[in-house]
């Protein structure tokens, strides 16, 4: 792990220097990257609260950046016309021109960096960047256990049901959703504070559990979050004495079937009376680790 950390740190040092991020004249303009990025994020107009959340900045630092851009006559801030408690930032005419110049210089700089590479090498670089972005997004997702009657749990289940109602040829009846209090475990995955996935389990017997309602939002698909949630559910159940996990799925959910098979589940005879569980799977999982 330590060697991996040092390699990432070394890459970060190289890349920030290569892009000129450390200078106080980013892309040759009279401002650092922080102010240049804020100009870009404001665009036509932006709610200051949204800017703070989007960029992960504290209120004091964002206020100082906005004040600096206002002093340069590039930005103006004012109360929102419909809610004077909300501040809005927008570019002035000079700010619009400066942002366009920033975009032009950024495009030219990246073009210059890529120009020596062949088409295949550029494709390799872009693919590598996409992989890095995917893995960093996955690493930033948090998974936590919540009671199954909380608002976030019920919202996730509603989103799950709405999607299945479209994907299943026969539709989906919300009555099939687990009722509050029925589940032994409910996990919610969040990306930047927004729920993007969930999963649950309940006991079928003393050491057997059924995994249910595994769902990942379309905005977070392709990250590997479904597998991470499935593993977390197995671990949660195993910590509570479960040694066998079962689950059912619909034949329309081909990606779910592939996930279960590649995660070590074997197909078994159907169990239960759910009309949507057209295929059934089972896997032996590690139970709780005994204390020494």
Write the topology of this structure:
Layout (H helix, E strand, L loop, with lengths): L1 H17 L14 H10 L3 E2 H8 L3 H13 L3 E6 L2 E9 L1 H22 L4 H22 L1 E4 L5 H17 L17 E7 L2 E10 L4 E9 L8 H14 L5 E6 L4 H9 L3 E3 L10 E6 L8
Parallel strand pairs: 7-8
Antiparallel strand pairs: 1-3, 2-3, 4-5, 5-6, 6-7, 8-10, 9-10
Helix pairs in contact: 2-4
Q: Gist?
A:
This protein is α+β, with helices and mostly antiparallel strands and 292 residues long. It is 45% helix and 21% strand. It contains 9 helices and 10 strands.
Q: Please write the string of helix (H) and strand (E) elements.
A: HHEHHEEHHEHEEEHEHEE
Biggest sheet layout: 7 strands, mixed
Number of strands: 10
Low-confidence stretches: none
What is the CATH architecture term of the largest domain?
A: 3-Layer(aba) Sandwich
Mean pLDDT: 94
Give the CATH class of the largest domain.
Answer: Alpha Beta
Overall domain count: 2
Structural class of the secondary structure composition?
Answer: alpha+beta
Our measurement of the CA-to-CA distance between the termini, rounded to an integer number of angstroms, reads: 27 Å
Strand order of the largest sheet: 4-5-6-7-8-10-9
Helix content: 40-55%
Shape verdict? elongated
User: Could you name the CATH topology of the largest domain?
Assistant: Aminopeptidase
Report the portion of residues in β strands.
15-25%
Say which CATH homologous superfamily of the largest domain is assigned: Gcn5-related N-acetyltransferase (GNAT)
């Amino acid at each position: 792990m330590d060697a991996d950390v040092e390699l990432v740190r070394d890459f970060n040092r190289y890349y920030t220097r290569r892009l000129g991020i450390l200078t106080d004249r980013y892309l040759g303009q009279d401002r650092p990257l922080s102010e240049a990025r804020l100009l870009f994020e404001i665009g036509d107009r932006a709610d200051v609260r949204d800017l703070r959340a989007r960029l992960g900045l504290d209120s004091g630092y964002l206020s100082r950046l906005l004040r600096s851009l206002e002093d340069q006559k590039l930005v103006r801030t004012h109360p929102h016309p419909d809610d004077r408690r909300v501040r809005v930032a927008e570019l002035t005419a000079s700010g619009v021109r400066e942002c366009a110049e920033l975009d032009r210089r950024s495009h030219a700089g990246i073009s210059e960096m890529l120009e020596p590479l062949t088409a295949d090498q550029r494709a390799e670089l872009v693919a590598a960047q996409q992989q890095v972005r995917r893995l960093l997004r996955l690493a930033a997702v948090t998974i936590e256990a919540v009671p199954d009657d909380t608002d976030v749990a019920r919202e996730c289940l509603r989103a799950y049901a709405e999607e299945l109602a479209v994907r299943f040829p026969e539709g989906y009846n919300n009555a099939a959703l687990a009722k509050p209090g029925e589940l032994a475990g409910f996990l919610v995955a969040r990306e930047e504070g927004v729920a993007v996935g969930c999963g649950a389990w309940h006991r079928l017997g003393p050491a057997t559990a059924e995994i249910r309602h595994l769902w990942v939002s379309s905005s977070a698909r392709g990250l590997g979050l479904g597998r991470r949630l499935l593993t977390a559910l197995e671990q949660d159940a195993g910590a509570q004495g479960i040694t066998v996990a079962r689950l059912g799925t619909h034949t329309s959910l081909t990606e779910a079937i592939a996930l279960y098979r590649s995660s070590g589940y074997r197909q078994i005879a159907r169990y239960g009376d759910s009309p949507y569980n057209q295929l059934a799977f089972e896997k032996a999982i590690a139970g709780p680790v005994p204390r020494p």
